[in-house]
Amino acid sequence: MKRHPANPLIKPEMVPPSREGYRVKGTFNPGAVRYNEEIVLLLRVAEDCVPRKDYISVPYYRFENGRGFPEILEKPLNDPQINLKDTRGVVYKGRDYLSTLSHIRLARSRDGINFTVDPGPFIYPCSQSESFGVEDARVTKIGNLYYITYTAISGDSWATALATTTDFSGIVRKGLIFPPPNKDVSIFPEKINGRYYALSRPHNQGFGRPSIWISESPDLLHWGNHKCLIRPRDTFWEQQKIGGGAAPVKTSEGWLEIYHGKGKGQIYSLFLLLLDLDDPSVVIKRGEKPVLFPEKSYEKQGFFPNVIFSNGLILKDYGKILIYYGVCDENVCVSETSIDELLNTIL
Q1: Domain ranges of the chain
Q2: Key word Aminoacyl-tRNA synthetase present in the record (predicted)?
Q3: What CATH architecture applies to the domain 2-346?
Q4: Cα dihedral sign for 149, 151, 155, 157?
Q5: What's the pTM value of the predicted model, to 2 decimals?
Q6: In angstroms, how far is CA 188 from the centroid of its own chain?
Q7: What is the spatial distance between Cα 242 and Cα 263, in angstroms, rounded to a whole number?
C-alpha cells in the first residue's frame, strides 16, 4: 500500500465543534462513498468540553421529540457528588458521563485528498440508545439507496443502528439492527442467492475473544443464521481481538474484506480476508501478515498510539483502491493500492 504524502488529510483543527463550549479532539475512522462526482467521508468526530479551572466539564445529550441537543455538565471539582472514574468520564449523582462524545460529520472532496468538512453534524444522537454518541459509520450502496451502519453507544453498551439516505443531506433512521454488544457491521453490496449478508463483531464475554461473524437477512432489518467466520489468532498482531472494516469488495477470486486486528501492546493493523462468492460464510484464504500497520510517526503517536483502523474504501478506475483509515483515534489518512495487488498478497 502506498501512503499519500499529504497524510494526515483531516485533523481535529479542521473541524468546527457542534456547539460553543465543545472542542474537537478527534476526526477519524471514516466511512467512504462516491456521490455526485465527489468522494464523501463520514467522519467520526469526538468532542469534549473546553476546560475551566477548578471545574469538571463533560458533554452530554438532552433528548426531546426525537432530537438530540448537546449540553454541558459543569460542576466544581470539590463537589462531593462528583466521582472521577478515570480519564473516560465521571459519575454525578449516580449517573455516568463520558469525557468525550462522538457524532458523524461529512467531508467532501473532488480529488479524494483535499477535503472540505461540513460545518454541522450529519448523524447526531437522537435517543437513549445513542446517549453516549454515535461512531464508526460504514456505507453500502444497494440500488439507489445508501445504507449506513453505525455504532450506537449508551449505558447498555454498544449496538449497531441502520440509516438510509439518497442524497447525504438527510437520513431515514431504521433503528437498531444488531443489539448490544455488537459493532463493526458492514453490509455486502448485493444479494447473494436471494439473501443479504453482513459482517459483525459481537463481544464475547466470559468465553473466547471478539471475532468476526456473518449473518443473513431477507430485508436488511431482520438478521439471522449467525455464524462465527474467523477468530483472533495467537499472534503478535491479533492476540486481543479482530473486527471487520468496510463492505467487502467483489473480485474474480471472491469477496475481499479488509479487517483490523488488535494485538500486543494494543497495536491495531489491517489484514486481508477472501470469502467465497456464492457462500460468503466459506473462507477461501486469510492473510498471514498485516498489509498495513503503524510505521509512520502520525500512525504511532497521538491520542491513542499505534492505531490503524479502516472502515471506508473507494474503488477507482482500473482496479485501484483508496483505503481511508483513522490513525491514533485522532486523524484521517489514505493509502492507495489495487485489487490485483491485494489478491496477489493473499493468494
Answers
A1: 2-346
A2: no
A3: 5 Propeller (2.115)
A4: positive
A5: 0.97
A6: 16
A7: 9
Question: What element of type H or E holds 331?
Answer: strand 331-338
DSSP 134-151: EEEEEEEEETTEEEEEEE
Interatomic CA distance for residues 126 and 275, integer angstroms: 36
Q: Rounded to whole angstroms, how far apart are CA atoms 57 and 39?
A: 36
Phi/psi of residue 172, nearest 5 degrees:
-115, 120
Amino acid at site 110: R
Other CB atoms within a 10 A radius of the CB of residue 199 amount to 28
* 294: amino acid identity, one letter: P
Reported as type and span, the H/E element at residue 344 is: helix 339-346
**For residue 248, is the peptide bond before it cis, meaning its omega torsion is within 30 degrees of 0?**
no
Report whether 232 contacts 268 (CB < 8 A). no
- For 322, the grid coordinates are 483508496
As given in the structure block, the three cell numbers for residue 213 are: 461473524
Angle value at C-alpha 264, between 226 and 234, nearest 5 degrees: 50
Question: 90 vs 22, 62, 72, 255, 300, CA distance in Å?
Answer: 17, 17, 13, 44, 28
- 70, 318, 346 from 342: Cα distances, Å: 43, 14, 6
Q: For residue 262, what are the β-bridge partners?
A: 241, 268
Whole-angstrom distance, CA of residue 339 vs CA of residue 255: 11
Q: For 4-48, what is each residue's pLDDT tens digit?
A: 999 999 999 999 999 999 999 999 999 999 999 999 999 999 999
β-strands 320-327, 308-315: how paired?
antiparallel
Provide long-range contacts, Cβ within 8 A and 24+ apart, for 217-224: 220/142, 220/147, 220/162, 220/174, 220/177, 220/187, 220/196, 221/162, 221/174, 221/177, 223/177, 223/178, 223/198
Which of 47, 202, 39 lies closest to 124, judged by CA?
Answer: 47
> CA-CA distance, 100 to 89, in Å (whole number)?
8
